[in-house]
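Bug #77: duplicate submission created two jobs. Keeping one. Sequence:
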Amino acid sequence: MNVVKAIILSAGQGRRLLPLTENSPKCLLSVADKPVLAWQIDALLAAGIDDIAIVAGFQVGQIEALLQARYADVDSIKVVFNPFYEVADNLASCWLARSAMDGDFLLLNGDTVIEPALLLQVLNSPSAPITLSVDFKESYDADDMKVQLDADGWVKQVSKIVPPKEIDAESIGLVFFREQGPVYFSEAVADALRHPAELKSWYLTIIDRLARTHLVNSCSVKGFRWCEIDFIEDLAKAGMLFTK
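Kept job's structure:
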């Protein structure tokens, strides 16, 4: 395997988790006595990935303090400050971290707790320019990032508004870029942000566009532990899931 970097998107406040995020970003909320961000970094380090860029915005100083307290001996973990976190969505965070997209890399949503075994499942998936980590369930709600797959498991579309009859899976917020994938993605992000309206876009809008040119494969993480933290009840769910 080539050397792999990681980019964690943690610039937002997480307003849907107020009042818990009134003075602290949601990536620092505690799950089983450990911050969400620490769960992610520990999983990456366990997989041998220590070149990690964390895009931070809201209360960036608290994230820097966590890194100093827990990971002072890992000098390849760095913070990329996003001063536009109040007016832009995570597509802008990707643009700010584009210098890390010079080779194979993982892109993680800053609010998804994952176990190391899940990460290894994705890292060992069949080679493709872009690999979208997906899971499956019986029904999907309005907030799920829904995915349609073709018969061979390649992504046809990814969006919150995939028609119900076309939904096959959901994205968990972890994407692996290899081969020419980093170039395709970084160039598409830069092109999109030439249009002011795209400041409010998610990076998965770019993945959706690239999927339509047969560049995005899927990797099933069914059976592995993960939890996206969007609402207060998700914290309880994640706590039960990740308590040993």
